[in-house]
Amino acid sequence: MKYINEITLKNFTCFENETINFSKGINIFLGKNGVGKTHLLKILFSHFKAYWFYENEYDLTDPENGRTTILEEINEKIEDCFLLENIEPLNRNDKNFEVSINYNNHNIITSSDGERLMGNTMPILRKNELKNAIYIPPSEVMTAFERFAHFSEIKSMNLDATYQYIAKHLQEDKCSEVEFESLNKAIEDHLGGQIERDENGFYQQKNGKKIYTSLMADGIKKIATIKHLIETNNINSNTILFIDEPEVHLNPFLLNKFVDILIELEASGVQLFISSHDYLITYLLSLKSEYQKNSNICFYSLTETDAGTKISSASQVAHLENNSIIDEYNRLLEIEHEYFFKEDLND
Containing H/E element for 240? Predict the structure, then answer.
């Protein structure tokens, strides 16, 4: 089975020297703001998006492309995903970074040389060895997907290339045969109907009327985006899926449904990398990890220290060190007790 086994980050943004071993299923990253959760997702995605693009979409015979190596492709994807003119700002404490990724027994090692990327170890990965990398950013894209498909447009809004990539996938037509058809039907039931697209955009048919995405709740659009990715076979058993803060715009009812979707994707062979601040998502996934047989779920706690971000991992949330989400919920209980006893004394 093809999946990302491990990454080592040296002098990369807030990471001084960290190695992370991944689950072949769901990997969920927790921690306070600014500890590198999104950076971790983006550096992984940039490498595999570049490899996939290079082998599947890049025309080596076209002189207008201007890029001739996979290293140049990775360099560009990193710059675009981090919205940078060059990669120099990713160096920690003025030291050149190094990223080492183990994928399917291949080692991919890249490092910075000032403003450009160097390829220390660049294995040749052909189409049959690769998985398609899909990144779902925090904010919804479905409403303005045609505008977001142009990098100049999203750059003018200070959005990175992950919004462009997902917008381009939303432009694709549905496939006649869908690998995850049963999951697709389950999502349709969650949404209360099919999501269609015409010349005016995406819409849902309700009571004989088209409800376009401009009038649709953002949480609905987030799940509808996953549905369209399934219907275009961009999400299938040959996918590595990155989701940044899936809880954005989802109320607790839809979060429950969303976790069911994640579990089904994992059981179907999709490797997932998720960054989250949400208690409900992490707790539900932890219950699945504890009580559901054959689940592959791992939690990672990212903690800021004087020596950079440190990472601990566990198969259940309760076993994590330095869990900022649980810490804050415990603090909330302490605040409640303080108010309760203060009120009791005043009486």
Answer: strand 239-244
